[in-house]
Amino acid sequence: MRDHRSILCTYYLESVIDPEKAAMIMAGEQSSGTFIPVPGESPRIRERHAARVLDVQALGSRPPSLPSRATPERVNAATVTVEFPMENVGVDLATLQTTVAGNLFELGELYACRLQDIDLPSDFIAAHPGPAFGIPGTRRLMGGVEGVMIGTIVKPNVGLSEEEFRLVVRELAMASIDLIKDDELMTDPAYLPLERRVAVATEEIRAAEQITGHPTMYAFNITGDLAGLRHRHDLVVEAGGRCVMLNVPVMGLPALAWLRSFAEVPLHGHRAGLAASMRAPGLGIDYRVWQKLARLAGADHLHVSGLGSKFYEPDDQVSTNIRSLLTPLGNTLTPVPTLSSGQNVTTPGPTFAHVGSTDLLMLAGGGIAAHPDGPGAGVRSLRDAWTAAVAGVPLQEAATDHARRGDEALLHAVHSFGEGA
């Protein structure tokens, strides 16, 4: 029977030995230390601290997914469920990661090892505040925007001079866009330091708001040295900024949790680098695991890739990513699933069909910046495409209808970004 204070993990494993024995080796490595009892490993230690294999589901024989010291032609695959005592971990995120996704990837007996899911005890979840703003707080800071939130990335992503940057932000803010963000590559370069970007962007956004009445949020990338993280956050807040961005896989979950402890604005969680531990089906961790930990650490927005995107995940996997984020996790607020990578007017329809929710932030770079009538038309066309998607109206029909009523933004976007464009 499972201890309600234990951590339950599901892994995909491959080994030449019996899958149950392989799972027991892994469980021993990640808890009391060995598969074979050693002096000092008393019954008390095993009872209180040893991880236990609860279930093994054999999946048959197949070629090995990963290299190792030996090179067998075939290995035994299985899905296994392992229970880790919370007493070993406490409520620390770094210790949790080390326990459930640490040395086990290096075991020579394993020719695949992937953490597919994690079920955390309520005590662990309750020990972490989770997002401070989440979906409701983000909407509020955007002026109570309804439906899908529309955002974009400053393009070109690097290399702009201060004046060029100013003009890009001005045009986007005047288009009443909901969110603008720095690219993950844009941190604090000498040619356009963070301090100047913050000053210029907040000035332009305030000026645009006086005209449009719409409070655009800017996610400033404060990724960088850990010692300066608080200073960079404070720089944004003191200038009136409404959001900061952190490249979570690079900085680490403990850095995100520390930022959450003093942050006064939403935390936009980028995932650059995550695919290194997620893309190979026989290695690393699944997105559904990572998002739970990033949520507990305090991310208000989390990137999920996008349907029809330029990245590797198929649409059904992206949909699963989104649904996993929208699934309740204890009493924490729900973060904003953030779509990116190749988003344009053709993707709202499939996205809504797969997910059935508008609690999303869609980031469209070229889908806005490359609109033939300018960014304002790009933003408007995306909003119109989402309205059509929710109403079940085919995109071309909606575009024709808008054009008939005098607004050709959606029609021009369909011509530019539609199939065969």
Automatic annotation (TrEMBL):
Residues 3-123 form the Ribulose bisphosphate carboxylase large subunit ferrodoxin-like N-terminal domain. Gene3D superfamilies: Ribulose bisphosphate carboxylase, large subunit, C-terminal domain, RuBisCO large subunit, N-terminal domain. Pfam families: RuBisCO_large (PF00016), RuBisCO_large_N (PF02788). Transmembrane segments: none annotated. Residues 134-402 form the Ribulose bisphosphate carboxylase large subunit C-terminal domain. GO terms for molecular function: magnesium ion binding; ribulose-bisphosphate carboxylase activity. It comes from the Bacteria. InterPro entries: RuBisCO, RuBisCO_lsu_C, RuBisCO_lsu_C_sf, RuBisCO_lsu_fd_N, RuBisCO_lsu_N_sf. GO terms for biological process: carbon fixation. Belongs to the RuBisCO large chain family. PANTHER family: RIBULOSE BISPHOSPHATE CARBOXYLASE (PTHR42704), RIBULOSE BISPHOSPHATE CARBOXYLASE LARGE CHAIN (PTHR42704:SF17). This is Ribulose 1,5-bisphosphate carboxylase. The lineage of its organism: Bacteria, Bacillati, Actinomycetota, Actinomycetes, Micrococcales.
